[in-house]
Write a structure and sequence with these properties.
26 strands
């Protein structure tokens, strides 16, 4: 017979059962402010986007201070400062990292920004400024940009650029050729004011915002074959968006959306189920005008919390992708689900399949009233033969 792991008295079993199907985040769990210690508030002036490379180095585009910063064991340090030359930035908006090479999209800033896309390598010595290479300059021709806002790299080295003032998405392949993969419009496969991108393999996600009579609030997906589908439309309900400003996707098929207009962060799993992972506020598990997202190889989410002048980190728990947290309140919870939740709360690893089978007390594969009675009898020391 399996043994129930000891659970802290402050986390009763009832909480475990009530959380399932609620669709609300557990306050504080997995969230923290990126900082070096409790004395450092992790302040970053106007972080608009974040990027993390393959070894976990974190960067942020500080739009308000016109700089690119890197997080180190000593805190945040500047790796590119304010200026007009390649290797310097003015109104940095989009950011992606490939090793220590950063691609940066700089906005127009009402005519004051650099309005370009450049790439440069971060120097080990912060006193040595990086040498940048401009990939795209201001213009409406293919290979030019107007107020570029977001970047994404696919698994094959191609760079995607959101070109919102030209209402298009451009792709730059490794041989330096540019092509337009989505042009102006509101039909499926067209874009209007695209503000966010995310890529996994050859799959691309695009977020658009309302801009005049033609615009819409939505998230589209372009699959490996180039076919487009709608992921989210406009609204204030779960699975809807208003002014989506940031996207991030991991290798498990999870998509995160920084929903600026609704002031929260939503998550869509690979089966299309939506949940909220951060609500409005100033606590470490809350956001204020989230503008940029990034996911590292361990599926840790980083958030440019623009309105709070900070960068947040969210480490999903071992049950974050489990279906029990995405089903309705009337859906039966299996005994294996209960075991996983209890062991997670106790800080223990998930049960094996054999343990889960042993835990099916009346052998019907579901956690119901009879199972609860049998479980309570076991906890009271009344165990005995339990016929199936």
């Amino acid at each position: 017979m399996w043994l129930l792991p000891r659970v802290r008295a402050s986390v009763p079993l009832a909480i475990c059962l009530l959380v399932a199907g609620s669709g609300a985040p557990v306050q504080g769990y997995g969230w923290s402010v990126v900082s070096i210690d409790d004395r450092d508030p992790g302040y970053v002036a106007g972080p608009w986007s974040v990027a993390v490379n393959i070894i976990g180095t974190l960067f942020a585009a500080a739009r308000s201070s016109h700089s690119i910063v890197q997080f180190t064991p000593l805190g945040w340090k500047s790796v590119a400062g304010k200026g007009r030359k390649p290797g310097e930035v003015w109104e940095p908006q989009g950011l992606v990292a490939s090793g220590m090479r950063l691609s940066v999209a700089e906005g127009s800033g009402g005519g004051l920004g650099n309005d370009r896309v450049q790439v440069f390598s971060v120097r080990p010595n912060p006193a040595t400024p990086p040498v940048g290479t401009v990939l795209a300059e201001h213009g409406s021709e293919v290979g030019c940009v107007e107020n570029p806002n977001a970047l994404a790299l696919d698994g094959f080295g191609s760079l995607y650029v959101s070109d919102p003032d030209n209402h298009r998405i451009q792709k730059r392949v490794s041989d330096r050729k540019w092509e337009v993969i989505a042009g102006p419009g509101t039909m499926l496969g067209q874009v209007w004011d695209p503000l966010a991108l995310a890529s996994v393999g050859r799959v691309l996600y695009v977020a658009e915002t309302y801009n005049g009579a033609l615009g819409t609030h939505r998230v589209q997906c372009r699959d490996e074959d180039g076919s487009w589908s709608l992921i989210a439309g406009p609204g204030r309900d779960l699975g809807q968006v208003l002014y989506p400003h940031g996207l991030a996707a991991d290798d498990r098929g999870n998509l995160y959306v920084a929903d600026w207009g609704n002031n929260w962060i939503q998550k869509r799993d690979r089966k299309g189920r939506w949940s909220v992972v951060a609500l409005p506020g100033r606590e470490p598990y809350q956001v204020n005008l989230p503008s940029g997202l990034a996911v590292d190889r361990s599926r840790t989410l980083y958030v440019a919390d623009y309105g709070n002048d900070r960068v947040l980190k969210y480490e999903p728990g071992p049950l974050a992708d489990h279906p029990v947290f995405h089903q309705g309140p009337e859906t039966p919870i299996t005994i294996a689900d209960l075991l996983r939740m209890l062991r997670w709360l106790a800080g223990n690893p998930p049960p094996t399949e054999a343990e889960a089978e042993d835990a099916d007390l009346n052998c019907d594969g579901r956690f119901d009233t009879r199972d609860l009675i049998l479980l309570l009898r076991l906890l009271a020391g009344l165990e005995g033969e339990l016929p199936c």
